[in-house]
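TEACHING EXERCISE
Course module: macromolecular assemblies
Task: Read the component lines below, then compare them to the predicted structure of the full complex.
Student: A.B.
Group: 4
Components provided:
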Amino acid sequence: MQRVDPRSASVATICPYCGVGCGVLATPDGCGGAAVAGDPDHPANHGRLCSKGSALHETLSLDGRLLHPMLRAGETLRRTTWDEALDHVAQGFARIIDTHGPQAVAFYLSGQLLTEDYYAANKLIKGFIGSPNVDTNSRLCMASTVAGHKRALGADVVPGCYEDLDCADLIVLVGSNAAWCHPILFQRMLRNKQERGAKIVVIDPRRTATAEEADLFLPIAPGGDVALFCGLLVHLVANGATCDDYITRHTEGFTQALDAAREIAPTIAATAAVAGLREVDVAAFFDLFVATAKTVTAFSQGVNQSAQGTDKVDAIVHCHLATGRIGAPGAAPFSLTGQPNAMGGREVGGLANQLAAHMGFSSAEVDRVRRFWNAPRIATHEGFKAVQMFEAIARGEIKALWVMGTNPAVSLPQADDARAALAKLDFFVVSDNVLSNDTISAGAHVLLPAQAWGEKSGTVTNSERRISRQRAFLPSPGEAQPDWRIVSDVATRMGFGDAFHFQSAADVFREHAALSAFENDGARSFDIGGLATLSDEAYDALHPTLWPIRAGETNGRERFFGEGGYFTANGKARFTAPEPPSLKAATTAAFPFRLNTGRIRDQWHTMTRTGKSPRLARHSPCPFVEIHPADAAPLGLIDGDFARVSTRHGECILAVAITDRQKRGQLFAPIHWSDETASFARVGALVAAITDPHSGQPAAKATPARIDAVAFKSRGFLLSRAPLRPPIAALGAKVAIAGGHALLFASDSALPLWLDYAASLGDGGDTAEYQDAARGIYRAARFREQRVDFCLFVGREDAQSAFDTAAALFEKEQLSTEQRKALLSGRSPDGAAEDGPIVCACFGVGAAAIDAAIANGARSVAAIGETLRAGTNCGSCIPELKRAIAAARACCEE
Amino acid sequence: MSEPLVIIGNGMAAARLVDELSKRALGRYAIAVIGEEPRLAYNRVLLSSVLAGEAEMAEIELRPASWWRDRGVTLLYGAKARAIDLATKRVSMTNGDSIGFSKLVLATGSRALRLPLPGAQLQGVHVFRDGADVDALKRLAAQRKKIIVIGGGLLGLEAAYGLAKSGAEVTLAHVTDRLMERQLDKDAAELLKLLIESKRIEVLLEARTTGIIGDERVSAIELADGRQLAADGVVFAAGIAPNMELARDAGVSAQRGIVVDDHMETNIDDIYALGECAQHRGVCYGLVEPAYEQARVLAARLCGESDIYQGSIVSTNLKVSGVNVFSAGDFMGNDGAETISWRDFGLGLYKKLVIDEGRLTGAVLVGDTSAALWCLELICSRVDVTQWRDALIFGRALCERKAA
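Instructor-supplied answer key:
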């Protein structure tokens, strides 16, 4: 329940998750919490929020928060003062610079930092420490788009805006499970489909929730995208669908690109063969594309996280350039970003291959920034990109690292290697807002408490180049500080105080805006000079604004390139012949599968925020791997049991989810779990560190892998008011639950050991037990003041439904006798309340309630929505609702 | 012309037999019932309720006088049968009368045992078997006397509860280490002890009574460990013995009870037995349900129908208000059977089910016995319960929901 004093004012801010950048109205409750609602006035979401955004209020607790600076003292970290911590950090970096030179220092930043934080960090390391070695987790998600944009468009510019999704007649989604990863944009697309009849084509190796809404679904082979869009380019030419005038006037290199495309995919048949598709589907897609002028091709990690990501991006961009479908309403290639401020980081230039503000390392650009910053020691060449950076750390070239707001020990490819590299650092600083994560546990020497979402204030930029204010609505807890201030304080103690006189986020922003406009004659797309003189009040009140907004302008620009005007030297877009498509690592007899990785609907990144929300935990509570039934059967894999997934780089033990939505020969595992939340579920450790040659972005979706069944004697769960981790559980995953802690586990310990464990937990006071030894079942619960104090279930079978029911009872403040009796049954005390797994996370509606509504005659998503409200907010569960309706229908027909 | 049928005994078995007979063949027999107690047949099971003041004697009568009259039954209550003459087919009574029969049914029941202890005949030492016992005990309880009940079985517990409820200060002395050891396992007995103690009854386990002390009236009992416990009254509730002497004296075969075959017929033609006095396949039942099943079979037999009695699955229901206890079948789970248990003493709840080859073969329910009848059905019907197994102990509603 969100309890809020209606008299308190709401604060307009921006959601901290994906790159859609939805407006959120947060109303603080005065007790450290807040109610959240979609901001009806924000142009990204018009008041809607997805399941994750709707649950933001469940993520605000200070549990596990880093609230004070900490210094390593042997095995442990001790609390210290800001003074001591800042001196320690400044001296630590100075010592390394003195001994090994500035190149031995690196920063690793995050797409969740605010633009102001990014700006300060980039300025310190590149401008004043003089090291180019700053990169960010955006390298893992957006770098190929950046490289593709710069190569083809001359600048990292998203040509369109969200309104294009509302008015396109064809939306092609490539490597994007937008239904789960960008739910609010996907709802805009679906509304377009419903109201205007727009067609949706989904291109993805997995039949995702997004694919289920498609008019046409192309289950492409991994790495097949370049061939598909080369084939499309050839087809467009063959069918006279190109816009030769646009090609001639505004582009160059078309002939070479077309020649290369003809080599790769000369015909529909050849395209289908390389992309692993049916000819009929390829032809249908090509015909749709030919026939539809207003086409948006939106793409995401399936395109970016590839060893050929840059070529993939440009193969898509080429088809839009060749048809002139760019910069017009409803026509654009459109990158959907994954983080709330990946775009802001790109604008700042907080990446190793950019200097600042859309400027690179040409001598003229270096000189310009040097003068603007008054920074004589400024870095003059590109630094190490993320994967290279950690390799350089492992080699000992980089000796000091500052990680801000991200968890590279989990998210980098070959994450075990990355974690091992961190342990070698001479000096390792982490600023974050958690006390513990895999990166901190890798051996951080200093922890600096940063403000979290709701406490910090600044700006973020979303996927359509819209700058919005993220505003504070909670008091800053403990000694947490904004990242820009922490950076400035360190800079000051290193002797760079003159350049870091920032008193507020607004100060930082004005300087950032001024740099974007500095000697910018229009050659640089990123220019927000129009915001460089905002007063503090105007900055606070800043409405969501598209960039560019040049000095003297009051409105940003919606679209680019409709009339050319590319940011290349000659103003023309550049076609580049792609490399022939191939996957860099081959499958072998030992590693016969391809491992794809990605997000799930209700978690985000490494779960430090979403992992606190009980309702988000219920959709997919434990780490899993998806596999096709025909692949699973010969390996003896059973749905709900466990499997070891291994690659040349690492291994995980994951729950098996058998589904025909997965293609044969491919596995899918979500990226979210870490050692902080589960055992043996660091999926990043499995991923090969193979990168795109242009962008340096690692390929995260095609690592050769094997999968083997793993048997455990028993499995179960533990719910407890106090955190517990039974040593006799071989495998465990933490699950968020209100008022306590939950652990799903598997175990090889015999039943009597679990009886002993339960007995060891308490005074034996008010306890209940259920036992069926022949079936390997033991359950115990302890009660205190009419609440469940702990509850243990051990059995041989998957305990998912029992977990849901027991968790619901655990969360109650007072149990009735009937509820207490029901607890150990693993079944709900009354039929209606037996929810099953949560499908609609926004309103907490479970599968059982939905099935019941369907059985009572609700035969459409709208009807279910009327009855249960499910699907009426973010809509990301609508594909699942449709599946349930279809399943019920199939059942009736039998 | 109706055949004369004489039933000796006016208890629950007799009443049920008359009922069954009149349903099948009203008028075929001219029935006479000889009963020692000077009242209409009553529900003996509810005597503990009368003792507890929860019911009146009149309320527990099984049938009104008119019912018997309507069925043409001659009721000879307050009359004790003295002997059976097989040659003349007559029953003689202590009052000098005699009555002839064509067929004779022995429904003589059983009597409470008085332990052969020194002092067992003192004043204030009672048993708990019939209406007269109840009257005496109620008088004692009303004076708030200290009463010791010897025996922690079904009967002893019910007596102790009734006495406590009627105002007595009650101690229950039981010889073994747990209550109702013939019907309950250790956990169930442990919970039962807690529940009984919550009814203001002191429970002493492993307390073997070795003597009753007093001059004319009881004043204390002595235990094997030497302790003496002061008492104004003592109730023996330490077992029952089938009343079979009348039959044995007449030459009817009797061992622990009157031996009957699957038709409830003794070794003598036209002489039958049922209820607590009968021994069928080596078993004497001390409960009412087997007597009712036997009555049905015997009535069928007497009406020329073929039905046989193959023994009963015994179930126990303790009738102590607020202390529900049920046990049935192979509740100990012997011979490699599997057990499912659920204990929540905080709720006063314990359940155990015994499963053998996928079938329910035994059950113990304490606290919540709402599933008792269902368990008994499952045990008797021997249906395979595998599909419900995980929900079984939590009740029928869950199982059926699961199956739906």
